[in-house]
Amino acid sequence: MLWVSRKTIKMNYFPDEVLEHMFFFITSHKDRNSVSLVCKSWYKIERYSRQRVFIGNCYSISPERLIARFPGLKSLTLKGKPHFADFNLVPHEWGGFVYPWIEALAKSRIGLEELRLKRMVVSDESLEFLSKSFVNFKSLVLVSCEGFTTDGLAAIAANCRFLRELDLQENEVDDQRGHWLSCFPESCTSLVTLNFACLKGEINLGALERLVVRSPNLKSLRLNHAVPLDTLQKLLMQAPQLVDLGTGSYVDDPSSEAYSKLKSVFQRCKSIRSLSGFFEVAPHCMSAIYPICRNLTFLNLSYAPGLHGNELTKLIQHCRKLQRLWILDCIGDKGLGVVASTCKELQELRVFPSDLGPGNAAMTEEGLVLLSEGCPKLNSLLYFCQQMTNAALITVAKNCPNFIRFRLCILDPVKCDPVTNQPLDEGFGAIVHFCKGLKRLSLTGLLTDQVFNYIGMYAEQLEMLSIAFAGDSDEGMLYVLNGCKKLRKLEIMKSRFGNAALLEDMGKYEAMRSLWMSSCEVTLGGCKTLAEKMPRLSVEIINESEQMEFSHDDRQKVDKMYLYRTLVGHRKDSPAFVCIL
Amino acid sequence: MSPENGKILPENDAADLNFEATELTLGLPGKSRVTSDGGAKLGNKRGFFETVDLNFGDKDCGQSQIDVQEAANSPVSNDEHRVQVEGWPPVRGFRKNAMTSCKYVKVAVDGAPYLRKVDLEMYDSYQQLLSSLEQMFSCFTIRNYLNEKKIIDHMNGIEYVPTYEDKDGDWMLVGDVPWQMFVESCKRLRLKKSSEAIGLAPRTPPKCASTTERSLN
Fold first, then answer.
1. Which of A47, A167, A265, A549 could disulfide-link to A141, CB 3.0 to 4.6 Å?
2. pLDDT tens per residue across span B182-209
3. Which of B27, B39, B48 sits opposite A359 (nearest CB)?
4. Which residues of A touch B39 (CB under 8 A)?
5. Given an 8 Å threshold on Cβ–Cβ distance, is A494 in contact with B85?
6. Is A397 exposed, middle or buried (0-12, 13-18, 19+ CB in 10 A)?
7. Does A554 contact chain B (CB < 8 Å)?
8. Could you tell me whether strands A298-300 and A324-328 are parallel, antiparallel, or unpaired per DSSP bridges?
9. Does the pLDDT at position A175 exceed 80?
């Protein structure tokens, strides 16, 4: 934050160019927003000099207003559907369409260079429109989006002459069996990032090889399952400068020529710091990777259920510099012990379930405790497990006070402490008490209002809270709303919070991005009251049931409510099953 | 979402019955559940869970989830049960699909004490799959009756109908959808005794028989 002392500098005589130059060094969105609030002239200078804008809810503002305020916009990040859409709680047709944004930007004189979208609906038409509208377009990042096919990718490949980045993360893409990779013209030599790991279909391997050969700046390459090991070897020969690699299908006979070539080429890849992929994996081929392991800072094996036990731990024992690890629960508690004794630099761990069946979750509190004892720098956790105890959580909180993100998912969502039969209130209470910088928290297990009392009291930096199957009464939700001053996103499913909690402090929601409540106790009447009193909120009721009619009974409980602050009133693109009050 | 069927609820002494009967659980039946004598707090929680769970089956909610009362009354035929709750577990659809597409699925047979596992990716058609099942449970042969796949146990003359649980948790008859679609959505297989297969999703009507037949190859 830039502080200017009034005694030493008179703002009136401070040239704009100097301010603009200073603002150039202020890059965080928060700081930029603060700068713009200082005074009118700072607002004006900031506005013209702003190049990157982040919009956390695409319905909170319109593209026209964005363009009007920031004519120098080069990079736009947009998020669409609420987070719980990831878990199938939001129907596909709900909204979050990117087309109107691209259309508006194309009409304006904005020289868009970068577009980053999360949970939005992206059609092939949008992609084609995008590819033809911005001469200097360089970077497209799509995360958890849907609605497009490889035809759309072909348009991007063909028309974006200076494309540097095409990064597709976990999108639902329809494969049209076209040769989108072949659509990159021979003149395209600017690629730095190419990530198509999420594509399900076949890939033109020859086109891929030729593309990599003519991309000397390629730093990040993530392949999909259709790229076999021997192609991987050929690609790495051409791109030993890679920093981030996602393998395709990692299966071969260890005695094959391709495999022995791969082993020697891995030894030349001194720059790889990040490794992922392994959609199919032959455990006996993992030793080829050992030379890279010692420099890895990020390792993602969360799509490799074929790796267990010894192979897995042997691999990890080579990764002494690891900072981020994404893994399946095949690793087990003991495996986490190996991580704890090897990866002293570990900051982020995500343990995903390998089997969603009942009673099959492999992790318990023991693994987490071991980890916390060995990795004090841990600051970000996603942990799917079978059970958790208060004692373990308290130990973890004391061992790792640096948590910024703490997401615990006990697969049986209302399971209490199996040792004491108590709710997990005390355990989570310790987390929020000791981890003073906690910004994101997801809770599961048997939880009463008491845990929310703790959260309201101690979680001063909390910005996002996810609640499921928790709490006893409206008190719980009120503790949170009254206590967490920095709360931006609150999402609640299947908890006993109702109108009293919803309506107590309605102004709070204007200081937040959004609130999601599904299968709770709020009624239609409560939501209507809120919508009436707060015109700058959009209160959406999502009703997917067979009866498409919305009941007019105010006492009816609302299935799904999503509300968010907005400067542009109700959106016009909502489908029939969404009612905006 | 269609209602879950066949959830077994352990019989316990009356003090625990309500709590355990209505507790949302993903655990196996008969597994030792936590009893609710852990203090007054949990005693109070019983009321909460009853109410909450009854709400889940509440038609006013407009969405059908677990109807615990119904589940309590239906006969037990599975040795494994799962509570399907919308939005749970919180795993991204993309990841869920990636996990199930190359996984083994369990095969259960009504009346058999053991399960087997098959890798659906190993087969190209329903015929191959059913032949494999025939070998696994060696006393069965497969007989095509009209367009329906049935498996006959000659030893005891019992007819089995192959069924499967799909991604949405619904139990379907094997053979209705194109093979690839089946592979992608099948989570586990069950050979149900013919008499118990009544009430599953209806088959395609006879006039579409030719389409069904094509799709089965």
1. A167
2. 887 888 899 888 776 555 554 444 443 4
3. B27
4. 421-422
5. yes
6. buried
7. no
8. parallel
9. yes
Note whether B26 contacts A412, CB cutoff 8 Å: yes
Mapping DSSP onto H, E and C, the string for A155-172 reads HHHHHCCCCCEEEEECCE
A537-542 vs A146-149, strand pairing mode: unpaired
Q: Is the dihedral of CA A340, A343, A344, A347 positive or negative?
A: negative
**Res B145: pLDDT:** 44
Q: CA torsion, points A98, A101, A105, A111, in degrees to nearest 10?
A: -50
pLDDT (0 to 100) of residue B131: 78
Rg (CA), chain B: 20
Measured distance CA(A79)–CA(A76) in Å, rounded? 10
Place of tokens 């200073």: A22
Number of helices and strands (H, E) in chain A? 20, 23
- CB distance B55–A557 less than 8 Å? yes
User: In this structure, what DSSP letter does residue B60 have?
Assistant: G
Task: Name the maximum alpha-carbon separation found in chain B.
Answer: 63
Cα B111 from Cα B191, distance rounded (Å): 10
Tokens for B83, please give them: 């509570």
Per-residue pLDDT band at A142 (split at 50, 70, 90): very high
A570 in helix, strand or coil? coil
Nearest residue of B to residue A355 by CA position? B99
Alpha-carbon gap, residue A154 to B197, rounded angstroms: 47
Q: What is the pLDDT of residues A63-91, one digit of tens each?
A: 999 999 999 999 999 999 999 999 999 98
d(CA B192, CA B160): 5
CA distances from A245 to A107, A240, A318 (A): 38, 10, 17
Average pLDDT over residues A563-577: 94
Which of A146, A109, A107 is CA-nearest to residue A127?
A146
Give me the domains of chain B, ranges plus CATH numbers: 104-196 (3.10.20.90)
Instruction: Report which of residues A14 and A429 the model is more confident about.
Output: A429
Please name the member of A305, A358, A409 whose beta carbon is closest to the beta carbon of B80. A358
User: Can you tell me whether residue B146 is helix, strand or coil?
Assistant: coil
User: Which among A286, A292, A200 is positioned nearest to A245, based on CA atoms?
Assistant: A292
Interface of B with A in 4-63 (CB under 8 A): 23-28, 31, 34-39, 41-42, 44-45, 48-49, 51-52, 55-56, 58, 60-63
User: What are the b/e assignments for A442-455, b being 16+ CB within 10 Å?
Assistant: bbbbbbbbbbbbbb
Shortest distance between the Cα of B155 and any Cα of chain A, in A, equals 33
Q: What domains lie within chain A, and their CATH numbers?
A: 13-50 (1.20.1280.50), 56-218 (3.80.10.10)
- Higher pLDDT: A412 or B194? It is A412
The total number of residues written for chain A in this structure: 581
What single DSSP character describes residue A134?
-
The rounded distance, in Å, linking the Cα atoms of A176 and A182 is 14
Full-model pTM: 0.77
**Rounded distance between C-alpha atoms, residue A110 and residue A63, angstroms:** 11
Cis geometry, peptide bond prior to residue B89 (ω within 30 degrees of 0)? yes
What whole-number distance in Å separates Cα of residue B176 and Cα of residue B153? Answer: 23
pLDDT beneath 70, residues of chain B: 1-84, 100-103, 122, 135, 137-158, 196-217
pLDDT digit string, tens, across residues A540-552:
999 876 554 566 7
pLDDT for residue B176: 86
Interatomic CA distance for residues A534 and A543, integer angstroms = 22
Structural element, H or E, at residue A268? helix A257-268
Q: Which amino acid is at B2?
A: S
| Secondary structure of residue A276 in the 3-state scheme | strand
Residue A50 is classified by DSSP as -
Q: Is the pLDDT assigned to residue A8 strictly greater than 90?
A: no
Residues of B within 8 A of A466 (CB-CB) are 90
